[in-house]
């Protein structure tokens, strides 16, 4: 009983510290039954370039944010329910090593650890939390996940028409359905992808045609409903509004000393048995 009380108090202090590091820019994280399993710095593949992000793994959510001052201040908090997460290991390719995909219905992205051991620990801890959540809730894991965006620097020309070269005027855009980097004319259509947003989102012409065919098949023999029927009317050329194309945690270009891994995954001995494989004292 004493150990359980000590562990509970230590867990509450750690969660309070995480909340304090995000300040008013973050949402409250303390909830009944929530446990901080571990934390660490991972390199997140953002739209423009890979960037260091601080990640916090709880038993029911994954939280990450931009590093302003390491261990003291973070911003642009993102909270991902673990019940929606599917992990997919990535093969090592050149400088990109020890990586895996974090996939959800609304957003998917790649992260990279500093070492193979750290990758193994992160994935094992996350998978254990997901397994426990799904077992307790009786829910099934989601079958549909958002596409992973192709980084800007991997596409010098439009991946749809294979002709348009990207310049200051010919900006890159991302299809929300397949994640490809496309030019304005090749992504002039929008479609409602309800797992990502209730508003029509930019899609490439190929995905737009496929989505409309799927919609027509599903509505065959029925009266067309409001839904995505009007989604294609909002076109945008290469000079159009592409504000929705920006990754919301990819616009802080201030240099920080934390743009490197100075520590591995830190797990806590205050959590329940089964989560912690390599405990670092704190």
UniProtKB/TrEMBL annotation:
Residues 243-253 have a biased composition (Acidic residues). Residues 217-282 are annotated as: Disordered. Residues 266-282 have a biased composition (Polar residues). The lineage of its organism: Eukaryota, Metazoa, Ecdysozoa, Arthropoda, Hexapoda. Residues 254-264 have a biased composition (Basic and acidic residues). It comes from the Eukaryota. It comes from Leptosia nina. This is Pleckstrin homology domain-containing family F member 2. Residues 230-240 have a biased composition (Gly residues). Keywords: Metal-binding, Zinc, Zinc-finger. SUPFAM superfamilies: FYVE/PHD zinc finger, PH domain-like. Residues 152-212 form the FYVE-type domain.
């Amino acid at each position: 009983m004493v150990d359980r009380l000590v562990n509970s108090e230590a867990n509450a202090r750690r969660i309070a510290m995480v909340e304090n590091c995000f300040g008013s820019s973050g949402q409250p994280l303390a909830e009944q039954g929530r446990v901080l399993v571990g934390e660490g710095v991972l390199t997140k593949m953002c739209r423009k370039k890979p960037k260091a992000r601080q990640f916090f793994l709880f038993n029911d959510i994954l939280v990450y944010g931009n590093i302003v001052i390491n261990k003291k201040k973070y911003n642009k908090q993102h909270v991902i329910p673990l019940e929606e997460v599917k992990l997919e290991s990535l093969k090592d390719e050149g400088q990109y090593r020890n990586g895996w995909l974090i996939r959800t219905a609304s957003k998917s992205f790649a992260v990279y650890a500093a070492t193979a051991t750290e990758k193994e620990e992160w994935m094992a801890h996350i998978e254990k939390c997901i397994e426990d959540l799904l077992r307790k809730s009786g829910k099934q894991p989601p079958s549909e996940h958002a596409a992973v965006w192709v980084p800007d620097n991997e596409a010098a020309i439009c991946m749809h028409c294979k002709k348009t070269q990207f310049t200051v005027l010919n900006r890159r855009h991302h299809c929300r359905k397949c994640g490809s980097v496309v030019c304005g004319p090749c992504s002039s259509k929008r479609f409602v992808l309800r797992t990502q947003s209730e508003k029509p989102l930019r899609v490439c012409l190929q995905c737009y045609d496929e989505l409309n065919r799927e919609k027509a098949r599903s509505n065959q023999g029925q009266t067309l409903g409001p839904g995505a029927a009007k989604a294609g009317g909002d076109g945008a050329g290469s000079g159009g509004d592409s504000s929705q194309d920006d990754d919301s945690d990819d616009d802080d270009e201030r240099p920080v000393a934390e743009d490197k891994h100075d520590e591995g995954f830190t797990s806590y001995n205050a959590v329940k048995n089964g989560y912690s494989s390599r405990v670092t004292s704190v």
